[in-house]
Design goal:
Blueprint: H1 2-6, E1 9-11, E2 14-17, E3 20-23, H2 25-37, E4 39-43, E5 50-54, E6 59-64, E7 77-81, H3 83-90
């Protein structure tokens, strides 16, 4: 996905719209990337962090939920990781 190559981090947000809390465009992009483009590689022991690989660009992305005080960990965040960061955090899962 071309969007992935332009960004190193995508942070979803919840917004209040027409009396409801709904996901913003970045949140929807994250959901689309995970469901359509990414291949799951590994989960961290915390249960809230997942490593994905984007097979076309061969890039690695980490899904986290940085607002842990919110219900369900809050909106998602995708962060592009280098191979060195992947090895450091996930070991030999490459």
């Amino acid at each position: 996905m071309k969007y992935a190559s332009k960004k190193n981090e995508i942070v979803g947000q919840w917004i209040f719209q027409a009396g409801k809390i709904v996901p913003d465009a970045s949140y929807k992009i994250i959901e689309h990337m995970i469901s359509s483009n990414f291949v799951k590689v590994s989960d961290r022991e915390d249960g809230w962090t997942t490593l994905y690989k984007e097979p076309v660009e061969q890039s690695y992305w980490e899904l986290t939920y940085p607002d842990s005080e919110l219900h369900g960990g809050g909106p998602p965040k995708l962060t592009k990781l280098s191979e060195e960061e992947v090895l450091e955090k996930y070991g030999e899962c490459l």
